[in-house]
Amino acid sequence: MAGLTDCTPLAARLEAHVEQGVPLTADEQAHLRGCEACRADLQLLRDLQLALLEDIPEAAPPPELRGAVLAAAHAAPARPAAPGWRRRWWPAALSAAAMLTGALTFTAFLNQSGGVASVLPDPAVVVSTGAEMLVASNDRSGTLTVLRGDHVRASLTVGGRQTPWFTEGVRLGDRVFLADAANDRVLEVRAWPLQVLRQHRVPDGVAGLSAVSGPGGARVYFKGVRGEVGVLGGPQVTLARETGQPLADVMDGVLLFGGQLFVTHHLSGEVCALDPDTLAVQRRLPLGGMPVALAPYEGDLLVLDVTGRLLRVSTAGEIRQRWTVPGHPDKFSVSGGAALLSDRAGTVTRVPLGGGAVTQMTLEHPMDVLALPGGTFAVAEGSRGLRVLDSDLHTTVHLGQQGQLLPARP
């Protein structure tokens, strides 16, 4: 491999990359692409950090934690030529961390924008954090990026045993919760300074999320792939027992509204109303089709049906208004009296809720849409980056994969 042929110097660089966010050089990245052993080393380091996150409450890490974990790793035998050495230090490192009392706050691979190779590699979910946006990408590294306007503030990678597949993101105070269906987890993230604080294990993947803070405390509700509904760290019920499904079909909506928890179950064509405390099913609204997303609108529910309908439904289940839309949209958001629907097959559709023509534009691979102030929308456009559209679907800002500002086009 040109520029880097020896694996030995890369071992320390990988530790620095995972622990401190030190960017890899072009030669080092090229070596990784061609060296299976070094790729396995990198994944192992990421797995270690994620293992330390699981089920650990947030607190400041004890100062001796870093030294103990790295000492256990460095105490492993020097790297032999034969395979199999890579896991020898793994149990020792985990034991060193586990022996320490106190908890771990995780600061993952933090990079400023100048040191990031690809900060928006495959945007799938976008969440507002106030003045900023957090974008989660479905690339192999699981890249999270914080944007302020058209500027990249920071980026980190979260990895995973499987390539991450982010399906939903919700904000709760200064936290963002991101559903990763491929790795059966929800990541709890602080947007600034960018940190992954904890990962919550959820059985069978996550199709939808909703977060709420009120008299009963802060809660994050989830809908599982096989029909489970629950609270992170709390009770769980099963709406139906379903078989698994491809990641591309993992989609459902969760919304706490009017004192009830509404959940779509697209495989049965229902929206279920649950008691938010006991999770007991109070009634089922048989809407037909395949409802996949929810939003509040003037005292009613807006229900998006992936078969090509947007419905305005009362909380009792009466369909008060319906719009027929082209394609198979699976995400939507509401701003300025209009709903913008994204169809990952290659379109976004604007539906004026007060009346008027439905309009549409072609995008490459829209995965998520977020309402912004002033009637504008941010669209996570897969491999094309992030795009901001005005109320007439004109592009006002377009950030490419590298975080660079691209020329806006209609």
From TrEMBL:
<dbReference type="InterPro" id="IPR041916">
    <property type="entry name" value="Anti_sigma_zinc_sf"/>
</dbReference>
<protein>
    <recommendedName>
        <fullName>Zinc-finger domain-containing protein</fullName>
    </recommendedName>
</protein>
<dbReference type="InterPro" id="IPR015943">
    <property type="entry name" value="WD40/YVTN_repeat-like_dom_sf"/>
</dbReference>
<dbReference type="InterPro" id="IPR011044">
    <property type="entry name" value="Quino_amine_DH_bsu"/>
</dbReference>
